[in-house]
């Protein structure tokens, strides 16, 4: 089974990075989250209810919908905030990429640790620009709003192809497919990583470090 | 072919499609109410949330949808459409978008109804939630109010897109294959808003683009949104009935259970018809209910766009009058020091317009540069005598050409102390401004530009006091800095 990979690209001002990333990540997670599973006897289960919430962006002419879960929002905001800080440290010609990866865990025998097999990866490439005056910023505000709208349509289009999704798990396997740590919703298992490319186009050693760490973890 | 589908599956599928259609209408109409929507997640299934999504049911909307469906289901050649249009306070209306729920012939026989179809319909509803915030009508609906309202109309049958004008765009929300056909949800929206631009419905965005409470955490529904009237439905002379009867059958409980058993076994899925666990008022949106019922009445309050602007101008004029009377005192302060009342009307205009720097009045305390041994003393506030030579304050005489300015300068009664001619003009008629509908537009801007309100922190005695304090403490600060000069040098080296 091949991992599905989608790339989205946005060009934003520095102050719009946070909201644009939140908008796209939350839109994806809205579609990849279900209610909490409640397993009953006879191998059946019922699903809790997912609420939604409209969020207005302050620096972009845009409103997006996210799952009503403060816990999930906190986790995503933390990741986006780290990405944003890394981007701003890298300099004014910031280019970076934040990846949202959905994976399944596959239990391995000892001494090998569980394998994480991604089944869908969303890469959001960000170019940060600096604008000279308020008029340009105002135009950028509207343009980025339109672009984000197009990206949301792209996301929806991919998701509605209804390609591979992990099978619904039994009670013992649910933690291999879903993130059951939140108390109100249940997204598929996911992880968020990011890379910053400096102006030379070479990616900083975050990825390399992560590869080494993963290899050593075996 | 229905023969492959068990009766239970067929029944389930029909029910899914029916409630999917009703929920679709709810999502679309609620997205055009002009308010931010917020519903809560619940980990324990309440049994009344179809497709495991918390979507409230506005009874009027459900009623309209059922009326349009008239017991039928969306099928091949029979689409359910929700048309969103805009109606101005003058009675003009324009279709903005049409959402279509269609069924085509392409069947997916192998798909499991109560599991896969149900989950995919749930995903499609989430996509609908996302896409309804992306089409252009969303922004318009958030700004609805006195100038225009957003209306919806539900119809069943052939899709009609002719009212959307030329060049309309289509966005597909998604598709779900079922054993009896493929459900498709799409939206066609107008791109040609030419009718709109001449009426200036779009209010200009804030210049800085920053909302004041950006850094304040708001919980669900706490931030006030733009005042908006919710969707009304045509015809506008619909009866203003009392509360709609609770539509009990739409609250059929959906206690779908899913099985993790292998597909070869019969999966135990059941839909129970139980009395609703949550009673009607909790499910519907009470505010929306009242608003929908009374929207017809509110809609009759008509304010033409031009009138609205004039109303704004009136406010601004009042504001200007109050600030300029405050300015007038400042000016009279300045005027005290002036030599003679100016005779040249253009010069009096200059006196009226020019000040020592923006927002700053000259302080009474004359701190001459010579008395302070300061660097940059040239930038300290000047004495009055220096002002006469300051080109910023006394511009060189412009060629005297007759202009409407002169007429208006002489024509106004004085609002303040006697010899002062340079104060507020009530009917300031600037050159080159159009006279017809908005005679005060340029004038208001001109006056505002010239009479910015005084900053409290820069009022006379406060500014001079703080200046004096700063100057007093300067020698001490300099002494300290000189003592620590080595540290500073080391710091600078470190940075390099």
From TrEMBL, chain A:
Keywords: Autophagy. This is Autophagy-related protein 101. Belongs to the ATG101 family. The keyword Transmembrane helix does not apply. It is found in: Preautophagosomal structure. The keyword Nucleotidyltransferase does not apply. GO terms for cellular component: Atg1/ULK1 kinase complex; phagophore assembly site. It comes from Periophthalmus magnuspinnatus. It comes from the Eukaryota. GO terms for molecular function: protein kinase binding. It holds the Pfam family ATG101. GO terms for biological process: autophagosome assembly.
């Amino acid at each position: 089974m091949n991992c599905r990979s989608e790339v989205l690209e946005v060009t934003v001002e520095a102050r719009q990075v946070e909201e644009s990333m939140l908008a796209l990540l939350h839109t994806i997670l809205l579609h990849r989250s279900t209610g909490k599973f409640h397993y009953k006897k006879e191998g059946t289960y019922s699903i809790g209810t997912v609420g939604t919430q409209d969020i207005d962006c302050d620096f972009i002419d845009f409103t997006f919908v996210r799952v009503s879960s403060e816990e999930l929002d906190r986790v995503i905001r933390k990741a986006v905030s780290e990405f944003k800080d890394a981007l701003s440290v890298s300099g004014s010609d910031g280019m970076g990429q934040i990846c949202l990866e959905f994976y399944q865990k596959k239990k391995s025998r000892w001494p090998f640790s569980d394998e994480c097999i991604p089944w869908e990866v969303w890469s959001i490439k960000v170019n940060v620009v600096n604008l000279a005056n308020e008029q340009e910023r105002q135009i950028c505000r509207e343009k980025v709003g339109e672009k984000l709208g197009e990206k949301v349509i792209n996301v929806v289009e991919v998701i509605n192809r209804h390609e591979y999704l992990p099978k619904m798990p039994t009670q013992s396997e649910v933690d291999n497919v879903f993130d059951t740590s939140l108390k109100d919703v249940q997204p598929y298992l996911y992880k968020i990583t990011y890379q910053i490319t400096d102006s030379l186009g070479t990616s900083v050693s975050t990825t390399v470090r992560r590869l080494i760490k993963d290899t050593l973890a075996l | 072919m229905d023969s492959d589908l068990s009766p239970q599956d067929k029944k389930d599928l029909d029910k899914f499609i029916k409630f999917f259609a009703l929920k679709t209408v709810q999502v679309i109409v609620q997205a055009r109410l002009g308010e931010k929507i917020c519903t809560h997640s619940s980990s324990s299934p309440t049994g009344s949330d179809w497709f495991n999504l918390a979507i409230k049911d506005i009874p009027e909307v459900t009623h309209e949808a059922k009326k349009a469906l008239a017991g039928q289901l969306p099928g091949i050649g029979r689409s359910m459409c929700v048309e969103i249009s805009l109606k101005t306070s003058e009675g003009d209306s324009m279709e903005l978008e049409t959402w279509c729920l269609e069924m085509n012939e392409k069947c997916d026989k192998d798909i499991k109804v109560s599991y896969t179809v149900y989950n995919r319909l749930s995903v499609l509803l989430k996509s609908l939630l996302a896409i309804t915030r992306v089409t252009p009508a969303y922004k318009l609906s958030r700004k609805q109010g006195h100038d225009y309202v957003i209306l919806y109309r539900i119809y069943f049958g052939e899709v009609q897109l002719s009212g959307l004008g030329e060049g309309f765009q289509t966005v597909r929300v998604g598709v779900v294959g079922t054993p009896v056909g493929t459900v498709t949800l799409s939206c066609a929206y107008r791109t040609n808003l030419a009718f709109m631009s001449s009426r200036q419905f779009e209010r200009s965005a804030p210049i800085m683009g920053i909302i004041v409470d950006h850094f304040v955490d708001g919980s669900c529904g706490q931030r006030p949104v733009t005042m908006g009237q919710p969707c009304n439905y045509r015809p506008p002379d619909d009866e203003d009935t009392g509360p709609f009867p609770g539509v009990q059958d739409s609250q059929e409980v959906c206690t779908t259970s899913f099985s993790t058993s292998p597909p070869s076994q019969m999966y135990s899925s059941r839909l129970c018809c139980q009395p609703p666990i949550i009673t009607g008022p909790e499910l519907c949106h009470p505010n929306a209910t009242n608003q929908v019922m009374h929207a017809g009445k509110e809609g009759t309050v008509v304010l033409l766009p031009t009138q609205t602007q004039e109303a704004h101008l009136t406010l601004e004029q009042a504001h200007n009058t109050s600030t300029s009377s405050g300015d007038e005192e400042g000016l009279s302060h300045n005027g005290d020091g002036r030599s003679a009342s100016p005779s040249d009307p253009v010069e009096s205009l200059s006196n009226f317009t020019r000040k020592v720097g923006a927002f700053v009045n000259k302080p009474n305390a004359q701190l001459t540069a010579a008395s302070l041994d300061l660097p940059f003393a040239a930038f300290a506030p000047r004495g009055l005598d220096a002002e006469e030579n300051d080109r910023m304050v006394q511009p060189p005489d412009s060629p005297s050409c007759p202009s409407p300015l002169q007429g208006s300068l002489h024509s106004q009664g004085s609002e303040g102390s006697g010899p002062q001619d340079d104060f507020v003009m009530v009917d300031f008629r600037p050159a080159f401004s159009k006279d017809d509908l908005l005679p005060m537009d340029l004038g208001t801007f001109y006056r505002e530009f010239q009479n910015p309100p005084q900053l409290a922190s820069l009022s006379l005695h406060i500014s001079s006091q703080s200046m004096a304090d700063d100057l007093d403490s300067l020698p001490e600060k300099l002494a300290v800095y000189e003592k620590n000069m080595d540290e500073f040098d080391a710091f600078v080296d470190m940075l390099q």
